[in-house]
Amino acid sequence: MTIVLDAFGGDKAPLCNLKGAVLAHRELGVDVILTGDTAVLRELAKKEQLPLDGIELLEADGVMDMHAEPTALLKQYRNSSMGVAFDVLCDGRADAFVSAGSTGAIVVGGTMLVKRIKGVKRPAIGSLLPAPKRSYMLMDMGANAECRPEMLCQFGVLASVYLSEVEGRKNPTIGLLNIGTEDTKGGELQKKAYELLSQSGLNFVGNVESREMPKGVCDAVITDGFTGNIALKLIEGTAMTLFGMIKGVLKKNPINQLAAGLLKKDLYALKQTMDSSEIGGAALLGVRKAVIKAHGSSDEVAIKNAIRQAVNMVKSGAIETMSRALADGVNEES
Amino acid sequence: MTIVLDAFGGDKAPLCNLKGAVLAHRELGVDVILTGDTAVLRELAKKEQLPLDGIELLEADGVMDMHAEPTALLKQYRNSSMGVAFDVLCDGRADAFVSAGSTGAIVVGGTMLVKRIKGVKRPAIGSLLPAPKRSYMLMDMGANAECRPEMLCQFGVLASVYLSEVEGRKNPTIGLLNIGTEDTKGGELQKKAYELLSQSGLNFVGNVESREMPKGVCDAVITDGFTGNIALKLIEGTAMTLFGMIKGVLKKNPINQLAAGLLKKDLYALKQTMDSSEIGGAALLGVRKAVIKAHGSSDEVAIKNAIRQAVNMVKSGAIETMSRALADGVNEES
Do B263 and A245 touch (CB under 8 A)? Predict the structure, then answer.
């Protein structure tokens, strides 16, 4: 299996990306195509004494600017490390794509270059978030700021297939993020999506309130990309603010400092869990190939894990299952 | 000044409501009209030896069911403790209204019985949320699941007046909750609201991402009622989940338990701060009189504080200022 990795996407690129590719080849036995400035990559490999077995370096022109409009990927950044990585995926030289670059650009590339699975109205981003007992998928996390009810229902199908095929969860429970549990709650979008999800044949457990969501009350929480993005970042922001306040308590006086010393290791581990607000990378679901968005701040282990996620997605045949699951909707307006 | 209090709204009614009214009369010097089953209230006062100076008991028939449709307030619950309290407010026997009952019903009563300030499209709920340095107002927290851009702009005006008049904040900063800081972010609602807020003359600081919101980066964060309600409950849910996980760390082994003993008081105080996810009650802004929604779980101190908030709102003349601020919009479609 071959995975294409945008060597220059992410805050710690290209070094961590290169190291992650080396780790992935060694531990997972996959070949990796790295796109970007090959001279820089070759120089880095030499300096860091990284073996390039199973790794192909492919020339690309520049890096997609994180602050550029996502659609710029199709124009001035068409030959960037991300643009070339999409080419490699599209022409079949690689089985899956991984980038830690701009989420918006990945959505654009996935939708316009890789293209949608037949019948999919809009691809969406799903990622696993940590919960005390079992992680849960939040989807859409920001690909579609505005959604129609049918889109939310499809997100449910895509998330359900992903969780059962890639994560091995049997008959995953699907909830709709809403401002109350009754089916009359929310706006028109939620009311209609509730109805569609109820009739979808999915293991739909109804509305889920945001107060319950962090507990991990169902396997996937479905919402529009605006609300999903607000929710994702609010969990992160709330956790970080709270940890900041706890830090204040721990430093308050010598007695607290003593106690802090005793708890240091365990509290640090807990903070780490919540810091990486997403577990692994985010998957762009609804496109014809495996497209994984790694965290912008990915180190080599995170890159390797994102590659692993891409490998699992390919091996599972999840995309073929999604295609079959959505075949009924092919003739609908898309 | 006279405040009318729904004696039977809330989880700890009527006892805590009665005690709260007694406290308010004693500490704030206001008269309180309590609506509900007066025989029960009189019996309680006798049993608890609570003096009824400055307190009038007014008969009402039953209590608005928390799970009933909010509009039921206008029908089968018209003579409930909340319905009668609204009558007392509307006919001028009281200057302000406080209830710990159903938020939805309070919005319905405020809008349909108290009525909107001239020019107000939709009243909305704003409440102060805790932040490390200074609290911030989130608005709308759930009165309007679906909003138009002009409504968000008005929420900004209402929040700004409330914060300056009632909270004494000079030229309060107003942010728009969005999925990115650039003015092109979000859906049509956010883009258009951004434009309107920019032209509003408010101290508009642009888009605020949910990751930044809990830090208290501006005085008020404006959003639609769906997103606001999701955000409010998600902060609460995330904080509670985190505290649960921290509790696990503190109980993990004898050493951690020792440390926990040392930190107990300070951590408990921190948890209390976040538990009462809102500071004081929530104000229904945009209606012609002061309408305060106290927490459902209010004890007597919380009830007294909600009464204090109502008093401050009346004294400040905030509603008159809101009327003047919105006068320009009177001829618009509402």
Answer: no
Q: B211, B223, B240: best mutation site toward chain A, by most A Cβ within 10 Å?
A: B211
CA distance B187 to chain A (A): 5
Element containing residue A178 per DSSP (H, E)? strand A173-178
pLDDT, tens digit, 9 for 90 and up, residues A91-149: 999 999 999 999 999 999 999 999 999 999 999 999 999 998 899 999 999 999 999 99
Give residue A269's pLDDT.
Answer: 86
With CB atoms and an 8 Å threshold, state whether A238 touches B233: no
A195 within 8 A of A188, measured Cβ to Cβ: no
- Farthest CA pair distance, chain A: 69
| Residues of B in Cβ contact (< 8 Å) with A213 | 234, 237
Which residue is listed with tokens 């909270």?
A: B167
Q: Quick check: helix, strand or coil at residue A317? A: coil
Q: Quote the minimal CA–CA distance from A218 to chain B in Å.
A: 15
CB of A214 within 8 A of CB of B233? no
Give the Cβ contact number of residue A36 at 10 Å: 28
pLDDT, one tens digit per residue, over A216-225 is 999 999 999 9
**Among the partner residues B229, B245, B262, nearest to A255 by beta-carbon distance:** B262
Per DSSP, the three-state class of B63 is coil
Task: Tell me the pLDDT of chain B (334 aa) as tens digits.
Answer: 999 999 999 999 999 999 999 999 999 999 999 999 999 999 999 999 999 999 999 999 999 998 899 999 999 999 999 999 999 999 999 999 999 999 999 999 999 999 999 999 999 999 999 998 899 999 999 999 999 999 999 999 999 999 999 999 999 999 999 999 988 899 999 999 999 999 999 999 999 999 999 999 999 999 999 999 999 999 999 998 988 989 999 999 999 999 999 999 998 888 877 765 567 799 999 999 999 999 998 999 999 999 999 999 999 999 999 999 988 654 444 3
Name the pTM for this structure: 0.93
Nearest to A70 by CA among A82, A54, A55: A82
Candidates A236, A244, A255; nearest CB to B132: A244
Order the strands of the A96-99 sheet from edge to edge.
Answer: A55-59, A31-36, A2-6, A96-99, A290-293, A279-285, A124-129, A136-139, A220-222, A173-178, A203-209
Instruction: Inspect the interface and report whether the beta carbons of A234 and B249 lie closer than 8 Å.
Output: no
Q: Are strands B203-209 and B136-139 parallel, antiparallel or unpaired?
A: unpaired
Q: Among all residues of chain B, which has the CA nearest to that of A132?
A: B245
Considering only the beta carbons, identify the residue of A142, A215, A256 that sits closest to B241. A215
B274 and A237 in contact by Cβ < 8 A? Answer: no
- How near does any CA of chain A get to the CA of B189, in Å? 10
Quickly count: other Cβ atoms within 10 Å of residue A266's Cβ: 18
